[in-house]
Amino acid sequence: MSITEDVLKNHLVSGELMLGSEVGIKIDQTLTQDATGTTCYLEFESLGLGGVKTELSVSYVDHNTIQVGPENADDHKYLQTMASKYGIYYSRAGNGICHQVHLERFAIPGKTLLGSDSHTSTCGGIGMLAIGTGGLDVAVAMGGGPFYLSYPKIVNVILSGKFENWASPKDAALKILEIFGTKGNVGTILEYGGEGVKTLDVPSRATMTNMGAETGVTTSIFPSDEVTKKFLRAQGREESWRELKGEEDGDERVEIDLGRIEPMAACPHSPGNVKTVEEIEGIKVDQVCIGSCTNSSYADLMKVARILKGRSIDPEMSLVIAPGSRQVLQMLAENGALADLIGAGAKIQEPACGFCIGNSQSPKEDAVSLRTNNRNFEGRSGTKSAKVYLVSPETAAAAAITGEITDPRNLEMEYPNVEIPPRFYVDDSMIIPPSRDPETEIFRGKNIKNLPKGESLPSAMVGNVAIKVGDEITTDHIIPAGQLLRYRSNVGKYSKYVFAPIDETFPERCMENRKRGMNSVIIGGQSYGQGSSREHAALCPMYLGVKCVIAKSIERIHRTNLINFGILPLLFENWTDYDRMEQGDDIEIPGLGEELRGGRILVRDLTKNLDFEVKCEMSERQRNILLAGGLLLYLGATI
Predict the structure, then answer these.
(1) Cα angle: 433, vertex 439, 444; to 5 degrees
(2) Could you give the strand order of the β-sheet that contains 153-160, starting from the edge strand earlier in sequence?
(3) How do residues 55-96 score in pLDDT, each as one tens digit?
(4) Which SS3 state, helix, strand or coil, does residue 602 take?
(5) d(CA 223, CA 3)
(6) What is the three-class DSSP state of 151?
(7) Dist CA 101 CA 297 (whole Å)
(8) Smallest Cα–Cα separation from 521: which of 460, 427, 588, 458?
(9) What is the CATH architecture of 461-638?
(10) By the 8 A CB rule, do 314 and 402 touch?
């Protein structure tokens, strides 16, 4: 039995362990962050389930920490009072990024973790089955409900050898992206094995499982072994360790020799646009940002500090460094590495997501920015014209010194090996345990609005194509983050920005369709909805009257979010039908009753006078959710 099969079998609530079938699993732990958390907890309140039923649930504040205006601070107070009342741990702003802190303080091998952030898979580096999803699924799990997923295809990624100097786990993660790409991996779990695993410490493994989210897989997982035990011992949590190993006989097998990995880079504007650093050397760099949940561990930043020690960054360079947690920042301060970073000319940011989500440190117009985070979608940095490259901390530090993209192997210095310390700095004073006080008064700022209610799916639908988009449309395209994050608790306000990076007039067309008594329809290409787990990419379109998305393919988390908010996800049976449809076409779907259960649905383009079939592949449970108008309405009808 594989590691994945072992964990799924021990947590199975419903369904059969058979490829492609829907299974429900028990969730041991949940996490939320503040950008998705307010909506998640509003949903949890609406379920009326009382306290949290999981073994552990944590509410992190790590996204909207800039607090320009009162909206973010109001949201944080709401989250803190919710945590106190319902039995949730609360990690305060400044304590660190959810994935880094959870890995350090809460992650347990063999347990299940569900998080309202797509990079929840980070904790797969410690042997958790850690899955990112929308906030509504997390709310249900906190109330004791199962999480449903398609039983996955397991791909064994067999590692051999060990890294040569100046190659790193980030480079291996980019190699994985080069192999798998960013689309076509729905319903897959990457399970790491082989002798090369023993050469990777837990933070290194976490970097690789974190970046696995960019391939579109359900999650990634490593064994739990003596290396895992050593990490947990250093965190003072050795009692949480259990061995976790499995047979390496999955559905597919990929072999990677770590000794042949070289410095890599994801070029603009996709994590899957991978080249070697050697191929792109010499490009002038304006900004370097080191940190995020991918590469902000103690070992990552110690390597950067040793590379920069006694040196100065290029005079035209802006260098930003954000530690992943308060633990990392404290240790850098105590051993002098922080002084080395400051002395080289780095700007030190608080332990938070910051530049990764574009709410701070946006580069200048047309800048080249090297970053150690996990996504380089166009405009995500906050500057649409910027060209963002994803690289390792070593490559980023080399560019900070030279002012251009530089293969770190060409630096005339000894490689800075860094070992996991025997004991990490541990201070959990900024994690507030829940009081479970039912008398706690929930604070609600003016920006927190009630959730909009969905409508049941009609037996027949008439709609208008409000927008047609191409391939690899991300949730950043659908509903941007950055400065707009402060509106996530106010769906009506936030909905004004749906598809703003592509077409600012989209919300107006949706409103016109409503006046005509018509639903709005979105036409998409391949890999529609890739990227973030943000359920607002479904919730805000639902608010505008979108009732159907027809695409060539839809990514896992976004597809689930569409169903959860009553939006029908359909797939073109014949991709040439995508080419024939245009924005502004009126369409009709005459049958959405029994036809919805048949797997194939007829669509009529009334404007073009053509009929075509689309696929509607989903479980009976998902069909019932759609017919009810969304998960909240479905649960309200069945509780």
Answers:
(1) 85
(2) 219-221, 188-193, 153-160, 252-257
(3) 999 999 999 888 778 888 999 999 999 999 999 999 999 999
(4) strand
(5) 7
(6) coil
(7) 10
(8) 588
(9) Alpha-Beta Barrel (3.20)
(10) yes
Two structure tokens written together for 603 = 């669509």
* Phi and psi based region of residue 503 (left: phi greater than 0; alpha: psi -120 to 50; beta: remaining): beta
Does residue 624 sit in helix, strand or coil? Answer: helix
Q: Where in the chain is the domain with CATH 3.30.499.10?
A: 3-260, 264-409
Alpha helices by DSSP H, 87-201? 98-105, 135-142, 169-180
Concatenated DSSP letters for 290-348?
EETTTS-SHHHHHHHHHHHTT----TT-EEEEE-SBHHHHHHHHHHTHHHHHHHHTPEE
Minimal CA–CA distance to 38: which of 494, 431, 397?
494
Peptide bond into 11 cis (omega under 30): no
Give the Å distances, CA to CA, from 380 to 231, 241, 260, 476, 533. Answer: 33, 38, 32, 7, 15
Q: What CATH superfamily is the domain 264-409?
A: Aconitase, domain 3 (3.30.499.10)
Q: Helix, strand, coil shares of the chain as percentages rounded to 5?
A: 35, 20, 45
| DSSP codes joined into one string, 54-108 | SSEEEEE--SS-S--SHHHHHHHHHHHHHHHHHT-EEE-TTSB-HHHHHHHHT--
In the chain, list all ranges with CATH 3.20.19.10.
Answer: 461-638
Q: Round to whole Å and give the CA distance between 476 and 334.
A: 38
**CATH fold of 3-260:** Aconitase; domain 3 (3.30.499)
pLDDT 10s digits, 305-362: 999 999 999 999 999 999 999 999 999 999 999 999 999 999 999 999 888 888 888 8
Q: In terms of pTM, does the model score above 0.70?
A: yes
